[in-house]
Structures are given as C-alpha cells and as structure tokens.
Amino acid sequence: MSLKPASPLPPAAPARAAAGPGRPKDLAKRAAILDAAKRMFTQHGFEGASMDQIAAEAGVSKLTVYSHFGDKEALFGEAVRAVCATLMPDDLFVADTTAPLHSQLADIARAFFAMITSDEALATHRMMMTPGSDERVRQMFWQAGPERTVRAFSAFLEARAERGELDVPDVQRAAKQFFALLKGDLHTRMASGLCERPTPAAVDAHIDATVDMFLRAYAVRPAPAA
C-alpha cells in the first residue's frame, strides 16, 4: 500500500482557442474529489471509505468520481501523491548550487518531518500497521508516497555528489538512511500515542543533529597521502 502503481492520468489535450465553459468546473471538481478522498481515507481507512461517501463529501455524483479517477485504487494512490506533492513539492529537491548544502538538507528534513508527523500521516501509518490490512493498499501507499520521496532525494544527492560536495557510493541507500534517521524513535512513539507532538525547538534540534550526522557520514575526505 502485489499491485502495480495506478496508471497515470492521460495527458491533457491541448487548449483550444475558445475553451468551453466546463473546463474550470472540471478542474474544480477534481480538486474537490481529491480533498474529500484525503479526508475519507484518513478517517475511515481504505476499506472503510466508499466511493459513495467520497462523492457525497465532494458534492459530486459517483459517476463523476469514476470519470476522473477510474477506480478506488487509483483515487487512493492519487490522493497520497497529492499530499506528498503539497508537503514536499518537486522544487524542494532541486539542487541549488548557490545555497549551502546543510541548509538545503535541513529544508528537506523539516518538510519530511512535518509531513510524517501530521495527524493525517500518523492516522494513515496506524491504518497501514493494522493486522489484516490489505497488502495491495500498503503497496499503493508505498509507491505513491515513500518511494516517490526516496527517488526525488536520491536525485538530489546524486547532483550534489557530482559537484564534489558529498561522497555517496549508493545514493538510494543514503536517501533511505536519511529518512530513517529523521523518523528515529520519535515517530514510532508518536504513532503509538506514547508522546506528545515535540516543540518547534525540539524539532529543530532533532533536524540539525540528523543533518550533521548525515554530512559526517558522507563528507568528502581528502585522499590519503602517498
């Protein structure tokens, strides 16, 4: 959350000189459906949320939901992708050669930590961990969320390594290590309801310590003397 990723939406047709009046309305309906889906899946889980509920919450017909997203699985995957794209947009992972590496890593870390500790993300995590939860749903969630984030961060690390700022033999492994460090035991305890949300100062300290450790692990070291 075994199932292949939901098929991407077909590319939009080129805009005509005189667009019909229904075009903006269709985009608004799509956004409303996605917002409703995020709420319903968070509150009721994948199995508990029905397409009827999502349609009613969005104020559209069930036929409209199907016409935009095809099926429930595709809608779920698109809802997860939409949340990730909002909280961790693609431009966050663009290697800015004018910005200090530490500050860019801290920005990525802060966005990731805010995302995984949001109420919606914690509820979804608990849903994924429930015994008997559907493996297809867990696979869809993984492909639309964590897998996408690791790919984007791996590309960022590769760009920085090519500039000689990092020594990263395996960028995918390093990306996974970075996010695992950020989660730490704090995320596990929050998901288990064993601790309150940390203060902003505590979050900053956690992020700085994580980035510092990551940079020490993958710093470019001088070649040994001959």
TrEMBL record:
UniProt keyword DNA-binding, yes or no: yes
Domain HTH tetR-type, chain residue ranges per copy: 27-87
Highest taxon in the source lineage: Bacteria
Gene Ontology molecular function: any one: transcription cis-regulatory region binding
SUPFAM superfamilies: Homeodomain-like (SSF46689), Tetracyclin repressor-like, C-terminal domain (SSF48498)
DNA-binding region: 50-69
Region entry Disordered, spans: 1-24
Keywords tagged on the record: DNA-binding, Transcription, Transcription regulation
A Pfam family hit: TetR_N
Name assigned to this protein: TetR family transcriptional regulator
